[in-house]
Amino acid sequence: MNRNNILITGASSGLGYTMALLYAQQGKNLALCARRTERLEELKSQLLAINSDIKVEVYALDVNDHDKVFEVFEQAKADFGSLDRVIVNAGMGKGASIGTGYFHANLQTAQTNFVAAIAQCEAAMGIFRQQNAGHLVTISSISAVRGFRRALTVYAATKSGLTSLTEGIRIDVMNTPIKVSCIHPGFIKSEINEKVEKVPFMVDTETGCKAILNAIEKEKANAFVPSWPWAVLHRILRMAPDSWIRKMS
Ligand SMILES: NC(=O)c1ccc[n+]([C@@H]2O[C@H](COP(=O)([O-])OP(=O)(O)OC[C@H]3O[C@@H](n4cnc5c(N)ncnc54)[C@H](OP(=O)(O)O)[C@@H]3O)[C@@H](O)[C@H]2O)c1
User: Does the CA dihedral 37-80-213-248 come out positive or negative?
Assistant: First the structure.
């Protein structure tokens, strides 16, 4: 399927930024959203240097401003004529063990990764239903498959919620031209994990994003990427005793 007009949230760094670079090489038109617009402007210049034939627009967007999510997605649809794929990627990983006084950080993660994802999915699906076409992609995480402790407790819960949300949307539009995919990345180098020590099976951003783009292209319901080791490990993680999970985080 030729998905030419692609909107990415959280495009100012990490996975969103690198996905945009890879999509520019493929000749895709890009609608890029984030709060740090100076980074998006710099990215836009890079993308047009890679491929001057593509159209790139940047939009200031805090995904926690839900009205703005709808406004920006509609604006992007108007600017590009149609939206073929929306990648719900904006996310964060602040937080700490529940009951240790970091409620505000945990709440911010919950709002950004889950509540704001509902707004982004709602806005994207409204457009796709109107078009009777489109591909919704959510960027969940390998951590969606189990509960994890400490800083990952709320983060993993938001990603589990996002995976479930994506599944519900997919079942809703089954047998229609609208496709819905949930990507579960393992550990890929980016700002979100730059301060984390001892991360297993970490890959560089480009390797990770190439695996993500390949998985997105297949338009399957769920993908665990890079497939080695995560396509196997996610099954083991689901069954592992709590004591193993405790040692891991
Ligand atoms: N890297 C990994 O290993 C990994 C693994 C699994 C899942 N993921 C998921 O992949 C996604 C991208 O993460 P990343 O690794 O690329 O991290 P990152 O480098 O920290 O990038 C996060 C992006 O999200 C945007 N963002 C955060 N809060 C936002 C808000 N309130 N409004 C709008 N945009 C916001 C940031 O843009 P601004 O700050 O400019 O707004 C930034 O562009 C996240 O959903 C993350 O959970 C990452």
Answer: positive
